[in-house]
């Protein structure tokens, strides 16, 4: 054998070894890179789980989706209450009763004084904030709403009542007849709620009794949560403003508002036509 042939024979095993190592490397790389069925199945399951988790609402989402917007009955519940307040007493300062049967011949005292609200008219300072809110809300219904009369002292009520008696006498009535006629819409000194600082006359017109009935109804709804009631409602079964309500002894007045506190006002509002006198009879 020649020397040249001997070198070729020696090189052949070396080439085979290199080829073998190359094929082994290819096999290892293919094993590492090629996707395995089990891994693909796991990846698919993981993806499916992620989609389910993202799509399924949480328990809090379920709860929120069941919440509905407030109904009209819920709105009414905020304005009125059919349950007699348990923490209210007829002796509460804001339920003081002043009328022909319950009069006071001296001026009231006010722990926090009086506060001017509108048009120079004053109220007990304890209800000033509520009165201001009521007036502002009323002006959203009718911008012309304003205070006509607020607190009156005993002396002022003397002058006021005498004025109305004189007006009735001018119609040809006697003194007694004029006083009786005037008492249908004005009270003798000591019997007027204006003395308490808890009542005021509010109207959209300078001449009282000319308000739009639909606006008065809207004002009543606004008034209740703020603690106010329309003090002198129609006589039972009547829509005649001139009819005397036997409970109050007063004609219907769409301008006279009285503060009784939110709980009491909401209860009275829930019972159309109820007077303060009738409400107090229910309290202990």
UniProtKB/TrEMBL annotation:
Keywords: Carboxypeptidase, Hydrolase, Protease. It comes from the Bacteria. The keyword Kinase does not apply. Residues 43-86 are annotated as: Disordered. Residues 121-261 form the D-alanyl-D-alanine carboxypeptidase-like core domain. GO terms for biological process: proteolysis. Gene3D superfamilies: 3.30.1380.10. Coiled coil: none annotated. GO terms for molecular function: carboxypeptidase activity. The keyword Hydrolase applies. CDD domains: LD-carboxypeptidase. Residues 55-73 have a biased composition (Low complexity). Residues 74-86 have a biased composition (Polar residues). It holds the Pfam family VanY. PANTHER family: D-ALANYL-D-ALANINE CARBOXYPEPTIDASE, PEPTIDOGLYCAN L-ALANYL-D-GLUTAMATE ENDOPEPTIDASE CWLK. This is D-alanyl-D-alanine carboxypeptidase. The gene is vanY_2.
């Amino acid at each position: 054998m020649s020397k040249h042939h001997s070198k070729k024979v020696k090189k052949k095993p070396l080439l085979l070894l290199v080829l073998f190592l190359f094929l082994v490397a290819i096999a290892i790389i293919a094993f590492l890179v090629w996707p395995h069925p089990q891994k693909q199945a796991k990846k698919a399951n993981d993806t499916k789980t992620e989609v389910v988790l993202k799509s399924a609402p949480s328990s809090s989402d379920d709860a929120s989706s069941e919440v509905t917007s407030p109904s009209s009955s819920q709105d009414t519940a905020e304005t009125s209450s059919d349950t007699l307040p348990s923490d209210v007493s007829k002796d509460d300062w804001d339920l003081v009763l002043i009328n022909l049967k319950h009069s006071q011949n001296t001026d009231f005292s006010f722990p926090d004084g009086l506060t001017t609200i509108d048009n120079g008219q004053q109220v007990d300072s304890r209800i000033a904030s509520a009165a201001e809110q009521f007036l502002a809300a009323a002006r959203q219904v009718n911008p012309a709403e304003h205070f006509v009369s607020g607190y009156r002292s005993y002396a002022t009520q003397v002058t006021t009542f005498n004025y109305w008696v004189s007006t009735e006498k001018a119609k040809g009535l006697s003194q007694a007849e004029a006083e009786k006629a005037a008492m249908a819409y004005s009270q003798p000194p000591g019997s007027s709620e204006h003395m308490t600082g808890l009542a005021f006359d509010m109207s959209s017109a300078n001449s009282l009794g000319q308000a739009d009935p639909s606006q008065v109804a809207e004002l009543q709804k606004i008034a209740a949560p703020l603690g106010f009631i329309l003090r002198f409602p129609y006589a039972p079964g009547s829509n005649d403003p001139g009819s005397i309500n036997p409970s109050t002894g007063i004609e219907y007045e769409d301008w006279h508002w009285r503060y009784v506190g939110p709980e009491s006002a909401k209860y009275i509002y829930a019972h159309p036509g109820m007077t303060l006198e009738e409400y107090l009879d229910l309290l202990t």
